[in-house]
Amino acid sequence: VLIRHGQSEWNSQNKFTGWVDIDLSDKGKKEAITAGKLIINENLKFDYYFSSFQKRAINTLKLIKKTIGNDNLKYEEAWQLNERHYGALTGLNKEEMKKKLGEKKIHEFRRSWNLKPENLDKKSPYHPLNIEKYKIIPKENIPSSESLEDTYNRVIPYFESKILKLLKSNKNILVTAHGNSIRTLCKYLFKISNQDISNLEIPTGNPLFINFDKNLKIIKV
User: Rounded to two decimals, what is the model's pTM?
Assistant: First the structure.
């Protein structure tokens, strides 16, 4: 099961968030609880949980675990599952930037495969280098801006090394992450082209159930 975190405080303000460690809004917390109820309806029991390193994903996972009554099972946090870094757009309002740069350019920044915004100034308080949570990540792995391709190139190796082997062992996995990190996973799993991936939208708080056969071929979504 893949699930994008519930609405964050910056989602509600229509800001580019990326690696800034923003928490859930009240609506986002309700979305996470609703997601847990949807999972209960599927009668699923999980063997492993994974989350990004960001609290909006972690707290979504905690609310889901509490809702489904599986609060004791540990989970793994991975920076590799973090949201895409939006570079110099970080913290800016999406509608205002559409007026400034044009709707087409902002759509390209948000949805294209290999285009990325200008780097975020390393002195910015929004830069991951200046966020306490990320101090344990090797500096060479901390981005100043990312394309979706860059995001793919950190998410997929982690998925292949950590999660794929568990799926091969017939384990049930729940991953809470972000719009773009989940888009990269969907691109990989569903073999979506570089062009078509721009059309994929991942809503907040909505579980995507993916069933595999023993050969890891998708048999049901």
Answer: 0.93
